[in-house]
Specification:
single chain; alpha/beta; 53% helix; globular
Length: 170
């Protein structure tokens, strides 16, 4: 089974594309766990929230993977948690890094920040941070030599590029 990850900075169309790809392939997709987590707390995220977020993300990935046939679409994966923990809290959680490195994700779809930034109260920092975070995602994928395809353009172009990239892995 193939594991496809949509990744990149906030407000780059990952969730929209993940839902569309799930429908196209008739396969499950996982949502970004941190979104649910933030909606359920009544405080600003802190370093103490990082472990429950990581555990929730991994659990969500594992549950959906059990339901998949040919592939699973992940609207982000634990790599996002690692990058955000380092960026916002200057924190590294060793077991999270080790768990990530032990998992096999077949393809990353790096969503480019070339679409309008959309606010999402309590979830997004702001458009000024998006380019910095995008650079961090790209640098991390390159450093770890992870297979990825850049996804850009309008919704139809993004969908077409993603389909071609996924089909090439099947």
């Amino acid at each position: 089974m193939k594991r496809i990850v949509l990744t990149g900075a906030e407000s780059t169309g990952k969730s929209t594309l993940a839902a569309a790809l799930s429908g196209y392939y008739g396969e499950p997709w996982t949502t970004e766990f941190v979104r649910q987590y933030v909606d359920g707390i009544e405080h600003a995220l802190s370093v103490e929230d990082l472990v429950p977020i990581a555990k929730g993300q991994l659990t969500q990935e594992d549950h959906a993977t059990a339901e998949a046939n040919r592939l699973i679409i992940h609207d982000t994966n634990i790599l996002s948690s690692i990058i955000y923990a380092n960026y916002y809290f200057e924190t590294v959680i060793d077991w999270v890094n080790e768990t990530f490195l032990a998992r096999d994700y077949n393809l990353y779809l790096l969503c480019m920040p070339d679409i309008p930034w959309v606010p999402d109260e309590g979830q997004r920092e702001g458009p000024e941070v998006r380019d910095t975070l995008h650079r961090l995602f790209k640098e991390t994928l390159d450093k770890l030599k992870l297979p990825y395809v850049e996804i850009s353009g309008n919704e139809a172009e993004r969908f077409g590029t993603a389909i071609r990239a996924i089909d090439a892995t099947l």
